[in-house]
Structure formats: structure tokens, C-alpha cells
Design goal:
The complex is a heterodimer of chains A (149) and B (148).
Chain A lengths: L1 E2 L2 H7 L2 E8 L9 E7 L6 E3 L2 E4 L2 E8 L2 E2 L8 E7 L4 E7 L15 E8 L3 E10 L4 E2 L5 E7 L2
Antiparallel strand pairs in A: 2-3, 2-13, 4-5, 5-11, 6-10, 6-13, 7-12, 8-9, 8-11
Chain B lengths: L1 E2 L10 E5 L13 E3 L6 E2 L8 E3 L3 E6 L6 E7 L7 E3 L1 E6 L10 E2 L4 E5 L3 E3 L1 E6 L14 E6 L2
């Protein structure tokens, strides 16, 4: 008889998915994701701006990148949100040049953890964006790790 | 015969750690975790304490400083680290006249422990010409992956 304690089983069933994003960063609006690839055990789907997730335990990490000229101070801030619910985890922001009084901190990623008992959806929401800021879609990406519950 | 117990209702596999234990004691170890009942992690019980794990854990994340600094940070309890990478933090322009125009780089620290361990995240070295870091609680975040 083989017995595997539960935590080891969960670790063994861990999956992950990689996402790219498009869109024009605008405050209080989400970016539009696309699935680049995922583990065979974890197949998230996209509906509009939502990443649809099956039941499970998740950690989510998003890296936002923007295109900037050497004379520009354009920046964005962003955070994960559960669709129909609250903002999740900690915010991230582009690597800012000094623009007095505008932004608070530079952290390349926004990060969160989420438990979904019966599935749900998440978005990456722009908290703040300078006018005319352009998303660097070649480098903006997210990784979501999942274990089943 | 193979027996696999049900996956539901057990311990969480991931933990999201935030906050800071004590700026004054150079202790950037997180003091808050999500979910709040994570049986395989114990948060620091005192301002100078470490956090502890009951088994193998992969930890990665960043602290945050409210004071200007250029410093290395990481786990000061390195004796049993299996895989370990320090991070660097670089904070400029924090003053009333600079408002919130702050640059805080977020180079991550990453470590893996293969067994129960204590972890204390601290400044490990710094440029002494500037006074920081002073650990603050708004922005730090770490992922902990239970590995076994």
C-alpha cells in the first residue's frame, strides 16, 4: 500500500499558466489577457478581460511594462482584482523616474493569493495611468500557479 | 494497492506574506500571512524573532524601505539554506520636498529550505554613506510555496 500525505499530493499537482496582455492603460479599467501556455493540469480560459479559473488555490503575479522615451515620466500602477469582488494582494507599478507627488513606489509586479471553492475570474486592473502611456506588450506578462483543492 | 486521500479540506499549499516585523530592529521578516491559519508557517513572535517553517518551503519576494538606502537584504540565518539568492534594494528621493517621487527597486530574494527552518529577513550589507533602509509594511510581499 502506498500512502501519500495530502501536502505532497498538492505539490505534485501544481500547475501554472503564462499570459500576455494588450490594451491601453486607463485608470479603473482592466487589461486584456491572452493565454500563452499552461500546464496540462491547468487550463484557464479567457472571456473578454477576465481570466477564468477553475476551483483551486492560486498565487498570481503580473509584471507590467510600458514604453517610455528618455524625456517621459509616464507610469502605471496595477493590481489583481477578483471579478465582482475586491482588489487582491499588493499593487505593482512601473519603474518610475522621479515625478514629484505623483506616485508612491516602484515595484515591478503585483502579487496576490486566491482561494476559489467553485471557480471564478480575475483581472489585472490599472489603478493609475499617465496620459498617453503605452503598454509594452512584448514584456507585460503574468504567471499564475495553481494547486487543486 | 494505492491510496490517495482526498485533496479537499487540507492545508493550504501557498501562503502570501506581507508586512514587516520591526524596522528598528532591522527585521524585515513579514508579520502577516494569508490565509491567517497557515499551519506550516509561524510568524515572528517578537520584534527580533525569525519566522519558522515546519518543512520544505520555497520563498521569494521583496521588502520595502521608507528611507533612502542602497543595501543588500536576505535571510540572515543562512546555515541551512539549500538554495539562496539575496536581493538588493535601492531607494532614492524620499523627502518632503520630493513628495512621493520615490524609486524603490525591487530585486527579489529567493530561498529554498528542504526541511523545517527559521528565516529572518534583514539588511545584510549597505552603503553606509546613506542612513537606510527603514523597513515599512505597505509594500512588502512574499510568496511561500509549500514543497513537501
Amino acid at each position: 500500500m502506498t500512502y501519500e500525505p495530502e501536502p505532497l499530493l498538492k505539490f505534485g499537482e501544481m500547475g501554472c499558466a503564462f499570459f500576455s496582455f494588450t490594451g491601453t492603460p486607463t485608470a479603473s479599467n482592466p487589461l486584456t489577457p491572452a493565454v500563452v501556455g499552461s500546464s496540462t493540469s491547468f487550463s484557464p480560459t479567457i472571456s473578454g478581460n477576465d481570466i477564468q479559473l477553475p476551483a483551486g488555490e492560486y498565487v498570481l503575479r503580473f509584471y507590467g511594462a510600458i514604453t517610455r522615451t528618455d524625456s517621459s515620466f509616464d507610469n502605471i500602477r496595477y493590481q489583481w482584482r477578483e471579478v465582482g469582488g475586491a482588489l487582491l494582494g499588493k499593487e505593482g507599478a512601473s519603474n518610475r523616474e522621479v515625478s514629484t507627488g505623483t506616485y508612491t513606489v516602484s515595484l515591478d509586479s503585483c502579487d496576490a493569493r486566491l482561494d476559489l471553492a467553485s471557480g471564478g475570474s480575475v483581472q489585472v486592473e490599472i489603478l493609475q495611468a499617465d496620459a498617453s502611456v503605452v503598454l509594452d506588450t512584448a514584456n507585460t506578462h503574468a504567471v499564475i500557479w495553481r494547486v487543486p483543492t | 494497492m494505492s491510496y490517495n486521500p482526498a485533496l479537499s479540506g487540507g492545508d493550504n499549499a501557498f501562503c502570501f506574506l506581507t508586512g514587516v516585523t520591526s524596522a528598528g530592529n532591522n527585521n524585515a521578516t513579514p508579520d502577516t500571512m494569508e490565509p491567517g491559519t497557515t499551519p506550516w508557517i509561524t510568524l515572528p513572535p517578537a520584534a527580533t524573532s525569525a519566522m519558522s517553517t515546519t518543512g520544505a518551503v520555497l520563498l521569494r519576494g521583496v521588502p520595502s524601505s521608507s528611507a533612502v538606502c542602497q543595501a543588500r537584504f536576505g535571510d540572515s540565518m543562512t546555515g541551512t539554506n539549500d538554495l539562496y539568492e539575496q536581493g538588493n534594494i535601492f531607494v532614492i528621493e524620499l523627502s518632503p520636498t520630493a513628495g512621493y517621487g520615490v524609486e524603490r527597486s525591487d530585486d527579489e530574494m529567493v530561498l529554498y529550505r528542504s526541511a523545517a527552518a527559521s528565516i529572518k529577513i534583514q539588511e545584510l550589507g549597505r552603503l553606509t554613506a546613506i542612513p537606510g533602509p527603514s523597513w515599512e509594511s505597505t509594500y512588502p510581499r512574499y510568496f511561500a510555496f509549500r514543497m513537501g
